[in-house]
Structure formats: C-alpha cells, structure tokens
C-alpha cells in the first residue's frame, strides 16, 4: 500500500489509462460523485464517448442533489447516460439494514449493470472505488468482486485528494463538491430502512445546505437528528441554532444535536459489531 501511495500522480494517471485501455468499452456505475465522475471523464477520453455508458441507479436512497451533479458531469463529458430504477427495497436483507446492507444494494445494481453490458456487447463494467475506500467498511466491494466489476481508480492507487486535483485540472464542474453517499448510510445499522426515513434525512440535509453548511451530514436516530459539520463551522451553527433547530424540527425530529467530533466518512460504522 505504501508503495502505491508514494507513486507520483502522473504515474498513477498513466496506470489508470493503461487499465482503461485494457477494455475497448465499458459500462460505468455513475453516481455523480467525484470518484465516478473522474472515472467517467477518463474513460470517455481514452475509449471514446460511443464506447462508454454511464448508468445511474435511482431509488429513495439516492439524493436528488446527486442527480443534478450527475447531469452536469454528463453534459461536460458528453457520455451516453442511462438511469435505472433499482429494486433494493424488494430485498428484505437490505431493508433490515444489517452491517452488510451495502452488499445487497450493490448486488442488485451490479447485476443490472452486467446485464446491460451483455445486451450491448460492452466489454467491462467499472465502478469508482478508490484507494482510500479500503480503509473503511465496504461490503459493497464484495458485491463488485462477485459480479466481476473492475475498479480502475483503485488499481491505479488513486486517492481522494488526487481525484479532486485531476477533476480541477480538467475543468469538471463538481471537482470541489463535498463527498456524498447514499441516504441509507445515515440510518443506524439494525434500524429498518424506509422511504419515509430517507426522505426525512434528505429534507434535513437540504436545510443544512440552505443554511450554508455545504459539508454536512444528518444522521437519523429516531426522533434525534445528529448533525455532523466541519468543526470550523460550529460557531456559525451555534449562532444560527434557533432558526436551524426550528427548521429541522419541522421535518419530524424532536431533538437536534451537534456532533462535536465533526463530519467524517462512515461514522455509522463506529462501534459496529
């Protein structure tokens, strides 16, 4: 791992291009986030727009703001774009929200992507997994391996800050957008996932953005909204607390708490069994 991290960005980019060239065409799991955006951008540049299909899975767990980001990137790259309705809510193993929830969601998505690739004669299916992701609990990674999905950014050893560097260099519109994740990641493991809970989270996070907290998360704990912000924005949140609390309570929460540990990826994984 250390050897990969010590490679220069130009070396990693060359490796990424080499991995992409191994496939003449690809279906890409495209969320509109920065990682899959870089993958789509590089794939269309290397393989040609006609040989790359971006596919976005839509469901109650997919934020509407991510779809808007995806549309901007598609306009930039000119890639072929398909949206599909994923069916993870039909899987009781997903709905019951165990620690392997992501596996069942990704299993459904990747099965659909491989079918699209087969029907269209496309050589490979890619996802946007990056090197940093290996440090977190990622059951969806197993689903990718089971389905034969390749992860070119991971193979190249590309890190999150390097993703943003390349996106900024090439002028992509979302290079500085905060990291995103499916709304189900805001619900504690063992708590049943419902579309109502996800909608409540999405409304709450929109409020945070409307208040100017672009890098933020709202974690659902029944009647408690646990807010994660950049610590540098704590003072502003306290200054706005009366209006902020009033707004978030309107979407159905009784209590509003500020997590003083700050925003972090995968906080629901902390202390998992």
What can you tell me about this protein's structure?
The protein is of the alpha/beta class. It folds into two domains: 2-170, Rossmann fold (3-Layer(aba) Sandwich), CATH 3.40.50; 183-269, Alpha-Beta Plaits. The protein contains twelve helices and seven strands. The strands form two sheets. The chain has a four-stranded parallel beta sheet with strand order 3-2-1-4, with helices on both faces. The two termini are 26 Å apart.
Summarize the structure.
The protein has 273 residues and is an alpha/beta fold. β1, α3 and β2 (52-58) form a beta-alpha-beta unit.
Order of helices and strands: HHEHEHEHHEHHHHEEHHE
CATH architecture of the largest domain: 3-Layer(aba) Sandwich
How many alpha or pi helices? 12
Shape: globular
Query: Overall mean pLDDT score?
Result: 93
Structural class: alpha/beta
Distance between the termini: 26 Å
Which CATH first-tier class of the largest domain would you pick? Alpha Beta
In CATH, the topology of the largest domain is named: Rossmann fold
- Structurally, the number of domains stands at 2
The CATH superfamily of the largest domain is known as HUPs
Q: What portion of residues is helical?
A: 40-55%
- Over all CA atoms, what is the radius of gyration? 19 Å
The tally of beta strands, per DSSP, is: 7
Major sheet = 4 strands, parallel
Low-confidence stretches: none
Strand content: 5-15%
Main-sheet strand order equals 3-2-1-4
